[in-house]
Amino acid sequence: MFNRRQLLGVGAGAALVSSAAWSKTSNMGLPEAALHDSAQMKVTPNPTTGPDYNPVVTLNGWTLPFRMNNGVKEFHLVAEYVEREMADGMTAYLWGYNGQSTGPTIEAVEGDRVRIFVTNRLKEHTTVHWHGMILPSGMDGVGGLSHPGIPSGKTYVYEYDLIKSGTFMYHPHGDEMVQMAMGMMGMFIVHPKDPSFMRVDRDFVFMLNAFDIDPGTYVPRIMTMTDFNLWCWNSRIFPDIDPLVISKGDNVRVRVGNLTMTNHPIHMHGYDFKVSCTDGGWVPPQAQWPEVSIDIPVGAMRAFDFKADHLGDWAIHCHKSHHTMNAMGHDIPTFIGADKSSLTKTIRKVQPEYMPMGTQGMADMAEMSMPLPDNTIPMMAGWGPYGPLEMGGMFSVVKVREGINAGDYSDPGWYTNPPGEQAYEWTGEIPDFTKVTDANTKITPEPAAMKMEMKNMKHGG
Ligand SMILES: [Cu+2]
């Protein structure tokens, strides 16, 4: 424990350092705290100062503007309470930065000196940790270790040199469990100083995050550890995650950060791709390895690159199938193969419209619009050109088209498959299926292990 003298000593030292820093930074006052209060994607124009780079595109997000002050790139992050439309019909009361959760993407260039003002508008202290960055220990943002927590209402200044390019994140390291469960996080992209190094035409970025919000409520349950019901990209769920719009022939990068409490194997259809960047930095071209799914570990970032040679609408999603569902209760009994006919008769005596569901699978849940509580969306949602997609959560569509202008990310609609390039129904003769047993009417045989156990019980074993 600290004694009073040590506390005073630390306080006095900190005050000295901050007043020296202040004399360097005060001449322009605080930079404007830019605000973005919707989930509308905002495309960042190319830089007009410093080395050229191709700005990233944040799905359902935006990039925080900066100003130059004597050669230092200055940003202003505001930690605050926000409302996030997670999908049409579902809003959450979260904590975030500059109007939204997830927070804005910060973009800068290798070699930049950045000065990031962090204003705390929460009612408890916070900090910002710059995840993956190589920086001075006192700038690392671990409350109580690197510096005191930023008290409510105060502004702290983080200032350091960006000595390496790559894909990074930021998040609080003060009451971290609560503040991250409430949605405080964002991506930090550092572009290479050499504009031609690892350059791509389209550079998408999103954060994997998760919430547990009961249907009809607005505030996440912060004590949930694994059993979340909303699996998000940038605090957004399918069908309202932006598509990844690409012009045929583009070189494309997708960068993903994971601040959930489990790993997510992100799978993209129609392509193989190469892993180009990890938490630690760029993967040299000769060491890049091909994948069609890339596991994003907890607290990690991965980027993968591909050349968009294949036209079409290609699904991109987490391959844990429960993570492409919305607002799903996980303690629903399984009805596969169950005979609900007598139960249905009983229920229909009091509720004539009752429909038995789930005995042949759960696809019927996506086709029927059932009454829902306010402020939630169905667990399987989204309609495509050929019917329900039966997806939710961590799912979007990569849309590769001919001749999309650089900088245009607007949704081109659904892909029209050329003649002869779509699965079709067989209309010739089909064999007689009457002798084939319907698996769902068969009584499931008791597994051997269960039989053994029952036998043991009978024998008192
Ligand atoms: Cu997942």
How is this structure best described in words?
The chain has 461 residues and is mainly β. The protein has helices at 4-25, 176-181, 341-350, 363-367, 448-458, and strands at 57-58, 67-69, 72-87, 90-97, 106-109, 113-120, 129-131, 155-161, 166-171, 186-191, 202-211, 230-233, 244-247, 251-258, 264-268, 273-278, 281-282, 290-291, 293-296, 300-307, 312-318, 381-384, 387-391, 395-401. The strands form 5 sheets. Strands 1, 11, 12, 14, 16, 17, 18 and 20 form an 8-stranded mixed beta sheet that branches. 36% of the residues are buried. Bound molecules: copper (II) ion. Residues 231, 264, 318, 320, 323, 394 line the site of copper (II) ion. Copper (II) ion is lined by residues 231, 264, 318, 320, 323, 394.
Brief account:
The protein has about 450 residues and is mainly beta.
Task: Indicate the topology.
Blueprint: H1 4-25, E1 57-58, E2 67-69, E3 72-87, E4 90-97, E5 106-109, E6 113-120, E7 129-131, E8 155-161, E9 166-171, H2 176-181, E10 186-191, E11 202-211, E12 230-233, E13 244-247, E14 251-258, E15 264-268, E16 273-278, E17 281-282, E18 290-291, E19 293-296, E20 300-307, E21 312-318, H3 341-350, H4 363-367, E22 381-384, E23 387-391, E24 395-401, H5 448-458
Parallel strand pairs: 1-11, 3-6, 5-10, 11-14, 13-24
Antiparallel strand pairs: 2-3, 3-4, 6-8, 7-9, 9-10, 11-12, 14-20, 15-19, 15-21, 16-17, 16-18, 16-20, 21-24, 22-23
The structure holds copper (II) ion.
